[in-house]
Amino acid sequence: PLFIPILEEHYRNQLQNKSREASIEFLIITKSGEEKWIEQDSVLIYERTEIVGFQCIARDIDLRKKAEVALQKIDMERKEYEFRLQSILDNTPLLIFIKDLEGKYILVNKQFKLAFSGIESLIGKTDYDFDSRENADRFKEADKIVLQTLQPIEREESFSYRGKIQNLTVVKFPLLDQSGKIFAI
């Protein structure tokens, strides 16, 4: 079986390091041919000052390991989905952002970052952190309308940035979760 060399190496290391306790997880093949994850704790047995053996306790951790593997797969799929979404957002010529319900930026695309290149990082900040109070109040009021009505709004916005007047058509809309509850704008 494949796990025997792994266990031998584990015991050898435990002996060489004189580690009183050690734990290892490994995959076995049962008599029926099924793969199963096992966790084994090994404790050195001493007679006076001499190591004479190991006391081992093995546990079936198959369900836990399968759950961990499933969670890792879900996490990898989520990261891949986020990467793809960010790639799409970064390759559109539009300025795109997502704000949480408190008005903090939680996602911005490449074009948005380029438009506001003088700002170190927008994530976690609100409009009040980098814009005039007048503009930030206006943006917050638009956010409030979206939050209250759960309907999109479209506005022409003009504001001064780095000494230049910027004119934009801003479309804000609610982002809803699967239960229909708003989580962002």
Task: Please give a structural write-up.
The structure is a single chain. The protein is an alpha+beta fold and 185 residues long. It contains 4 helices and 9 strands; from the N terminus they run αβββαββααββββ. The strands form 4 sheets. It has a 3-stranded antiparallel sheet with strand order 1-2-3, with helices on both faces. Strands 4-5 form a two-stranded antiparallel ribbon. A hairpin with a 2-residue loop joins strand 6 and strand 7. The longest helix has 29 residues, at 62-90. The radius of gyration is 29 Å and the shape is elongated. The relative contact order is 0.08.
**What percentage of the residues does DSSP assign to strands (E)?**
25-35%
Overall body shape: elongated
Q: How much is the radius of gyration in Å?
A: 29 Å
- How far apart are the termini? 56 Å
Note the quaternary state here. single chain
Strand arrangement within the widest β-sheet reads: 1-2-3
Specify the helix fraction band.
25-40%
Task: Jot down its keywords.
34% strand; single chain; two-stranded antiparallel ribbon; elongated; 9 strands; 3-stranded antiparallel beta sheet; alpha+beta; 185 residues
Present the secondary structure layout.
Elements (H helix, E strand, L loop, with lengths): L2 H15 L3 E9 L5 E13 L2 E11 L1 H29 L6 E3 L5 E4 L1 H6 L17 H17 L3 E9 L2 E9 L2 E2 L5 E3 L1
